[in-house]
TrEMBL record:
Name of the molecule in the record: AP-1 complex subunit gamma
GO annotation, biological process: intracellular protein transport; vesicle-mediated transport
Mode of membrane association: Peripheral membrane protein
Domain GAE: 700-815
Family to which the UniProt record says this protein belongs: Belongs to the adaptor complexes large subunit family.
Region ranges (Disordered): 594-618
Organism lineage string: Eukaryota, Metazoa, Chordata, Craniata, Vertebrata
GO CC term, one of those recorded: AP-1 adaptor complex
Intracellular or extracellular location(s): Cytoplasmic vesicle membrane; Endomembrane system; Golgi apparatus
Top-level taxon of the source organism: Eukaryota
InterPro entries: Adaptor_Complx_Large_Subunit, AP1_complex_gsu, ARM-like, ARM-type_fold, Clathrin/coatomer_adapt-like_N, Clathrin_a/b/g-adaptin_app_Ig, Clathrin_app_Ig-like_sf, GAE_dom
Length: 820
């Protein structure tokens, strides 16, 4: 049989292929020749054939049929055969294939070989693909080589020991005696691998961590010698002595110094020397400085050292390399909570990063800018962030708008500034704001009595300029409906009042009703605003005509509103002024929401419980009515305690409903449940007027369930049945926190499909203690008259480690006993 071609010739031939098909044909032809050679047990050219096979494997072609040939090469006595055999084993074999166990005996023999290069091959292979069984069998040989005086073998044995510890952690103590003298080695290769081994042992075992803390002074000496040593061509990289070893030692010091005062004290001086003496003109120096900064931030370092570390990150922000700027922003974002004042010094540089072309840097700079906002710099920072909001890509607008809302709510220097800022956001990025921005701004405007005239004038001007931003249009419509009389009378004192007639205002609102840009919700706001103006303007006949036109609208929501408003004009005109009077000031009782909303699913508002019932329930009746008025639901009969409230307009329901489009079927809504007599209390408190709210609750043997478990927060549901009404399921939530930091401002909200009715009672607390040391409970009552399968969407908001967290989840796995 002719001799097979050499590897070099094969490479040259494959590179001449003009198409992938041509290359595939060459590979298949050569593979066929190699298979034939393997079948004939050709020992002369086995090494050459396996080398060619490895090259094909690197190109992505199958080469598994060469696995046994690798084992034969490993068993050979020739070094060249062993070298290719071990290389093939590392590439073609892994621990998931049983064939690798056949190598164990060969590796054991080679670990005891008289030639160091053969021993090195065996150590590399074991450290690359050794399984847990192989590691157990060969750990003794590795430990023996770790104690040898040969530097070449010691560094390879140390890396192999790292792999053994990862596969079989219980063998860690076997290597402990061998690590005593590793750091006294002069060879940098052995030092480097020794530090890697010590790092692995410290990360995997608290006992090892405590044991190796006594090595901190020795590590400090090694690091000091590295930075103080003169030029060494063997280890020099861009003028820095062995930066790879320096980085490894800094990482080990970071682990050893974490949460330990003595170790941190011992390394403070050397960290300061590294931070001040390292050259920053080359990337190598920046890598060492970055590791130094991470070490300073993780250990219990002195305050001056932490300021030095943050200043290094500040210098990184001026670097031309995008990667360096990115890691600097990321590191500053992690430290801003603990070293806020030090990071504040670099605020202008951070803000400049908002103009960077790289989207990753812009996002990190935006997040860090919001973290730096406080009461002292709110005006300047908001000016920069609003400018960024104007010019940023659409992918940033939602997060930026949300951040501006939160910062303005927390640090607003005045109500006028707050209103101007929110309106600026709505004008710039109205289509990207959160769903709760409209009720939030409405609540803010309502409570700013002295700003009503100024606000309605500003919003009217904004409507004349642009009606494409729907949240802005909705707020403007609501304000014009509430304070249209102030707009027409020109009572604005903060700026020059504009001259507007009643007809001009109505023209604008009617334009919104017919505009193609208006959503159904916006049209509902506009129609309600026009209706409110019937008690504030004299143009009542024109308003009647507009309302009557939409009584036949194809939009069912708009039609329902118009029909009910027509009925108000015709049958209850004497009640119209009282029903459409201006809203009172709403008290804000939740830190992360507009008001303490009566949390229902938008079908009906629960009435309040009489004062004699002990458990806390929903807000007073007048506030529930205020909320309906705020949401444009003037067609709703006021909520009272002894009559059944009329179904509110669904636009209000949409704002109160977390579910949005969640429904149990795509068909028409089922017929409503039979109404209860008006002599009984409405909704979920049906039949409970003569007894406490939970006076007679019988356990129904319903299994509990976990509704939410994420980021350390766990929400469990337990179930009971309420007597005498079996259609009411009483669900008690139990919120626990397994993280190390408590969760504050905790708010749980829930919603169900519109065939159900839901009532949330007050929680036991708004603080969820850390480490599962306490539980927050809250009661949910769900009325399910049609016995349909229960589905629920929950919304969780809380503050954790200084950051506001918000999450939505859907719960569909309720036990059948809870709803049947």
């Amino acid at each position: 049989m002719p001799a097979p071609i050499r590897l070099r010739e094969l490479i040259r031939t494959i590179r001449t292929a003009r198409t992938q098909a041509e290359e595939r044909e060459m590979i298949q032809k050569e593979c066929a020749a190699i298979r034939s050679s393997f079948r004939e047990e050709d020992n002369t050219y086995r090494c050459r054939n396996v080398a060619k096979l490895l090259y094909m494997h690197m190109l992505g072609y199958p080469a598994h049929f060469g696995q046994l040939e690798c084992l034969k090469l490993i068993a050979s006595q020739k070094f060249t055969d062993k070298r290719i055999g071990y290389l093939g084993a590392m590439l073609l074999l892994d621990e998931r294939q049983d064939v690798h166990l056949l190598m164990t005996n060969c590796i054991k023999n080679d670990l005891n070989h008289s030639t160091q290069y053969v021993q090195g091959l065996a150590l590399c292979t074991l450290g690359c693909m050794g399984s847990s069984e192989m590691c157990r069998d060969l750990a003794g040989e590795v430990e023996k080589l770790l104690k040898t005086s040969n530097s070449y073998l010691r560094k390879k044995a140390a890396l192999c020991a790292v792999h053994v510890i990862r596969k079989v952690p219980e063998l860690m103590e076997m290597f402990l005696p061998a690590t005593k003298n590793l750091l006294s080695e002069k060879n940098h290769g052995v030092l480097h691998t020794s530090v890697v081994l010590l790092t692995e042992m410290c990360e995997r075992s608290p006992d090892m961590l405590a044991h190796f803390r006594k090595l901190v002074p020795q590590l400090v000496r090694i690091l000091k010698n590295l930075i103080m040593s003169g030029y060494s061509p063997e280890h020099d990289v861009s003028g820095i002595s062995d930066p790879f070893l320096q980085v490894r030692i800094l990482r080990l010091l970071r682990i050893l110094g974490k949460s330990d005062d003595d170790s941190s004290e011992a390394m403070n001086d050397i960290l300061a020397q590294v931070a001040t003496n390292t050259e920053t003109s080359k990337n190598v120096g920046n890598a060492i400085l970055y590791e130094t900064v991470l070490t300073i931030m993780d250990i219990k370092s002195e305050s001056g050292l932490r300021v030095l570390a943050i200043n290094i990150l500040g210098r990184f922000l001026l670097n031309n390399d995008k990667n360096i700027r990115y890691v600097a922003l990321t590191s500053l974002l992690k430290t801003v909570q603990t070293d806020h004042n030090a990071v504040q010094r670099h605020r202008s540089t951070i803000v400049d990063c908002l103009k960077d072309l790289d989207v990753s840097i812009k996002r990190r700079a935006m997040e860090l800018s919001f973290a730096l906002v406080n009461g002292n710099n709110i005006r300047g920072m908001m000016k920069e962030l609003l400018y960024f909001l104007d010019s940023c890509d659409p992918e940033f607008k939602a997060d930026c708008a949300s951040g501006v809302f939160l910062a303005a709510e927390k640090y607003a220097p005045s109500k006028r500034w707050h209103i101007d800022t929110i309106m600026r956001v709505l004008t710039t990025a109205g289509s990207y704001v959160r769903d709760d921005s409209v009720p939030n701004l409405i609540q803010l405007i309502t409570n700013s009595v002295e700003m009503h005239a100024y606000t309605v004038q500003r919003l009217y001007k904004a409507l004349l300029d642009d009606i494409s931003q729907q949240p802005l249009v909705q707020v403007a419509s609501w304000c014009i409906g509430e304070y249209g009389d102030l707009l027409v009378s020109g009572q604005c004192e903060e700026e020059e009042p504009i001259q507007v007639t009643e007809d001009e205002v109505l023209d604008v609102l009617e334009g919104l009703l017919v505009s193609n840009l208006s959503t159904p919700v916006t049209r509902g706001y506009s129609l309600t605003a026009i209706m409110k103006l019937s008690t504030r303007f004299s143009s009542v006949n024109r308003i009647k005509k507009v309302v009557s036109i939409y009584g036949s609208s194809i939009d069912v929501e708009l039609q329902q509103r118009a029909v009910e408003y027509n009925a108000l004009f015709k049958k209850y005109d004497h009640m119209r002024p009282a029903l459409l009077e201006r809203m009172p000031i709403m008290e804000k009782t939740a830190s992360n929401g507009p008001t303490e909303i009566v949390q229902t699913n938008g079908e009906t508002e629960p009435s309040t419980v009489e004062a004699k019932h002990p458990p806390p329930v929903t807000q007073p009746t007048n506030q529930a009515n205020d909320l309906l008025d705020l949401l444009g639901g003037n067609d709703v009969v006021p909520v009272i305690q002894t009559t059944i409230p009329t179904k509110p307009a669904s636009a209000g329901g949409e704002l109160l409903d977390l579910l949005g489009d969640l429904s149990l079927s795509g068909g028409p809504a089922p017929a409503p449940a039979p109404s209860v007599p008006t002599s009984q209390p409405p909704f979920l408190l049906d039949g409970l007027t003569s007894q406490p709210l939970f006076n007679d609750i019988a356990a129904a043997g319903i299994p509990s369930m976990t509704a939410y478990n994420k980021n350390g927060l766990k929400i469990d549901f337990t179930f009971e049945r309420a007597n005498p009404n079996p259609n009411i399921a009483v669900i008690t939530i139990h919120a626990t926190n397994s993280t190390e930091a408590e969760m504050t401002d905790f708010v749980f909200q829930a919603a169900v499909p519109k065939t159900f009715q839901l009532q949330l009672l007050s929680p036991s607390s708004n603080l969820v203690p850390a480490l599962n040391q306490g539980t927050v409970t809250q009661v949910i009552r769900v009325l399910n008259p049609q016995k349909q399968q229960l589905r629920m969407r929950i919304k969780l908001t809380y503050t954790h480690k200084g950051s506001a967290v918000q999450d939505l989840a859907e719960v569909n796995n309720f036990p059948p006993q809870s709803w049947q």
